[in-house]
Design a protein that fits this description.
CATH architecture of the largest domain: 3-Layer(aba) Sandwich
Structural class: alpha/beta
Radius of gyration: 21 Å
Shape: globular
Number of domains: 2
Strand content: 15-25%
Largest sheet: 7 strands, parallel
CATH class of the largest domain: Alpha Beta
Length: about 375
């Protein structure tokens, strides 16, 4: 009998943020692994008009359900209190839905608040992406989970240090769809599609420009451009306010003429941007979130592209990348970033070897394999 999985996402869907892709790809992967999956989200206003299957390029192999709760965020988007109230209303509506449901259904969620549903007799799987509050209350909620999935070994260690049973914790980093990001496309063909210069050396960054208003390394890229005058920097996936922010920085640094900043793009288009690149950048700064909590989707997408990667030396990165499949530099060092870019441009053989090694190793990190591992763990 197939596992019945109710995936609760306390989020606007579809969304331009990276978690939307992770959620949709996970649901698709769970269904491919044989589970009967329903994704349940609060009904919220979104500027994206296409449905989630189209936006994220996923199969229509899972159900999608929206629950109507007051959209408090529409009126108080920056309020933490509104955030808590919205989550509470959504959780209450879900609890009412589950009250007369089958306790054989497994609840899967990325928010620790969902663990209270265990009181209704359901098994709850908590997928942890970050820990903002290491309070007794947080760990008390997490202990209600039947199983915990973490996206990095660093996160797993946090739970082990708090006394959790290692047998209940599975590490499952983010993943990639090789059918999208592993496609063959000549560099100049990609540049023609995107109206990018054919002769330039192009460094590309894809995805959100900030996370929780924290810079994700674009600041250092802009500073590095001053030392690599032949490089054009292209970033795609930013919100309008972030684009304005980094345009101001580029103007102040005197490199705006070599900076191209573009907004949200669907998965297939992001793959084209990566194919247009001479190098792919993710110089994350050294902050607690980037050091301990993340498993960036772009890392696996970059690896699948066949383009060399420059990344910073953080534990969450070096769980996957190393000096055999990428150039690893110190975080917060624009000079080192510029030197790495120069090295790649001057050594085509090394660039090719690094890119090929990354492409071979990413086969272990597909969304399908990730979802299969999780589903298998639920049957143990």
């Amino acid at each position: 009998m197939a596992i019945k999985l109710l995936y609760l996402a306390f989020a606007r869907m579809p969304t331009e943020k990276a978690h939307g892709l992770t959620i949709a790809k996970s649901c698709e992967g769970f269904a491919r692994a044989g589970a009967e999956v329903t994704l349940v989200v609060p009904k919220r206003a979104t500027p994206i008009t296409d449905d989630i299957y189209t936006v994220y390029g996923v199969e229509h192999n899972f159900h999608f359900e929206q629950i109507s709760v007051p959209d408090i965020f529409a009126h108080f988007p920056e309020s933490k209190l509104a955030h808590r109230i919205h989550h509470g209303l959504f959780l209450a509506a879900v609890a009412l839905r589950l009250l007369f449901g089958s306790r054989q259904t497994i609840i899967y969620a990325r928010e620790p608040q969902a663990c209270v549903l265990s009181q209704l007799g359901y098994r709850v799987v908590y997928e942890c992406h970050h820990i903002f509050d290491r309070s007794p209350r947080f760990f008390a909620l997490a202990r209600r989970a039947h199983r915990i999935v973490t996206i990095s070994h660093a996160l797993k260690r946090t739970f082990l240090d708090a006394g959790f049973d290692e047998r209940r914790i599975l590490v499952a980093p983010s993943g990639v769809d090789l059918a999208v990001f592993g496609v063959e496309l000549p560099r100049n063909d990609a540049r023609r599609q995107l109206d990018l210069p054919l002769a330039a050396k192009i460094a590309v960054y894809t995805g959100n420009f900030t996370t929780m208003d924290q810079d994700k390394g674009i600041h250092d890229i802009i500073l590095a451009l001053k030392d690599v005058p032949t490089v054009t920097f292209v970033a795609v996936g930013g919100r309008a306010d972030d684009i304005e922010r980094y345009e101001r920085e580029a103007r102040g640094a005197g490199v705006l003429d070599r900076v191209v900043l573009r907004g949200f793009a669907p998965q297939k288009e992001l793959a084209v941007y990566q194919k247009a690149a001479d190098m792919l950048l993710m110089p994350f700064p050294d902050t607690p979130h980037y050091r301990n909590h993340m498993s960036p989707v772009k890392m696996f997408e970059y690896m699948a592209s066949g383009v060399p990667i420059i990344a910073t030396d953080l534990p969450t990165i070096t769980e996957v990348l190393n000096r055999e499949n990428a150039i690893i530099i110190p975080p917060g060092d624009a000079k080192a970033l510029a030197a790495a870019m120069t090295d790649l441009m001057s050594d085509n053989h090394r660039a090719s070897v690094l890119a090929q090694r990354a492409r071979e190793e990413v086969a272990a990190f597909t969304w399908n394999r990730r979802s299969q591992n999780i589903v298998q763990s639920l049957t143990l």
